[in-house]
Amino acid sequence: MKLSRRRFMQTVAAGAAVSGWQLPIFGQSSQLNTLKIPELYYGDMRSGVNHYALTAQSGTVDFLPGLRTPTIGINGDYLGPTLRLMNGDDVAIAVRNQLGEETTLHWHGLHVPAKVDGGPAQIIAAGAEWNPQFRVSQKAGSFWYHSHMLHQTGAQVYRGLSGMIIIDDEDSSKLELPAEYGVDDIPLIVQDRRFNADGSFRYIGMHMDVMTGMYGDTILVNGTGAALFTPTTQRVRFRLLTAANARSFNFAFDDNREFQLIASDSGLLSAPVTLHHLELAPAERAEIVVNFSDGAPVKLVSLPLDANSPFTPQGMMRNMLPMNSTPIQILAIAPQSQLESRVEIPDQLAEIQRISASEAQHVRRFTLSMPMGMGMMNMRASGGRGQMGNMGNEFQINGKTMDMATINERVNMGDTEIWEITNDSMMMHPFHIHQGQFQILDRNGVPPPAAEMGFKDTLRVGPGETARIIMRFEHFADPETAYMYHCHILEHEDNGMMGQFTVS
């Protein structure tokens, strides 16, 4: 939905008056902090195989002045390095678990065999090592990795177990796009977190934290609070990753400047799309190019969802605090005085062949539903990790909750399928499918806008909405090992809104 300049300015004025474009931050000082850039990890090529060594470990971070927060991360205290992969490369990853608890590591959006997908079946015991190997077999794009531990995904991701993946290919390397990592190609891992008085993370404090998903009152970008980025080039490519557990973001700039969307979840679009704001749900990614040649300081913000947005909560959920209704400052941007000139972005980016609905051999239907009754009151919190009474059986897909012993769907390899997802609840759910990428056919019969015409792996489904996607299942036959499909509001996933499918 297009946001008019008048509506934008009204929202800006209201947001500034309410909160100065900032969520309340416990212990916040007025000082801005230089944006941290995750380490770029190319791996170690040996005998034609690119090797990566990852260690899940505990640590502490000073997110708040004078307080230490216990955290977990990959090869560091919080979050992990950005893994750089090349299409066609053979990859071997050694994942060591030094957390003192079980975990998994899922390669979100990667097209890999089920046995190395890193879902809840590929558990890494405390002190153990997991050694997945696979060939990178997809186009360039921005992806990520994170814990997918059954019933503990939300808690482990909240504490820091995630990182970004960038895939390159020969075609994208030929494009004149900002591509110098940390200079004009910047990852932005956007999260919201809540803290206790002692600086520790506060996770699952009341039943609403599960019902709506876990919302925080502090914004972190790449693990940086009150983050500041200083561009040195006229154009910057931001790789946006919504790594929040539940919060959606409506990204914009506080001066209403336009930007070009060049990529969605699973790679480049066919052509840039000019936008003034962009809605992303948990787990969605986007790549945007922004022009800072005017030299003016600006803020990347998140606007409240428009009341008429199809993704706005309905009914009693509309009144649930905060439900994406708060204007938020994400990142302060202050360009340096002299900016290096970079080329214009190309008019054509990638060749995308749309998949026709007529190609489908099968149609599957999925209905997402969630609790609205007294079962919600049975949630309890234990040791900082969300636990449930009998609420776990209320978050459902097709009337069923996640059961590791049940394969919900069996897909024939080589088939093209349409999946029809209906949201039978009063809030949006981001629906993620493991194994590969899909295209959106329509929402309530209406074709998607240009921004959603590329390949994706996560689909926003609004309240009462029915969306249809189409996907080819061309590789990785395995009748025994399942992939997941689930809501990517992590507290919903952890408490039942997930299913399993095999390809064979």
Strand content: 35-45%
Based on secondary structure, the structural category is: mainly beta
* Shape, per Cα inertia axes: globular
Spatial order of the strands forming the largest sheet: 15-14-13-17-22-19-20
Write down the overall mean pLDDT.
Answer: 91
Instruction: Give me the number of helical elements.
Output: 5
List low-pLDDT spans: 11-21, 24-28, 374-392
Major sheet, described briefly? 7 strands, mixed
Topology:
Blueprint (H helix, E strand, L loop, with lengths): L4 H15 L13 E2 L5 E2 L2 E3 L2 E13 L7 E6 L7 E5 L3 E8 L8 E3 L20 E2 L2 E3 L5 E6 L6 H7 L2 E7 L1 H4 L11 E9 L14 H4 L6 E4 L2 E2 L1 E3 L5 E8 L6 E5 L5 E6 L2 E9 L1 E4 L4 E7 L6 E5 L25 E6 L28 E8 L10 E3 L2 E3 L8 E2 L11 E3 L4 E8 L5 E5 L4 E6 L14 E4 L4 E7 L5 E10 L2 H5 L3 E6 L1
Parallel strand pairs: 1-16, 2-6, 4-7, 6-12, 13-17, 16-24, 25-30, 29-36
Antiparallel strand pairs: 3-4, 4-5, 7-9, 7-10, 8-11, 11-12, 13-14, 14-15, 17-22, 18-21, 18-23, 19-20, 19-22, 23-24, 25-28, 26-27, 30-34, 31-33, 31-35, 32-34, 35-36
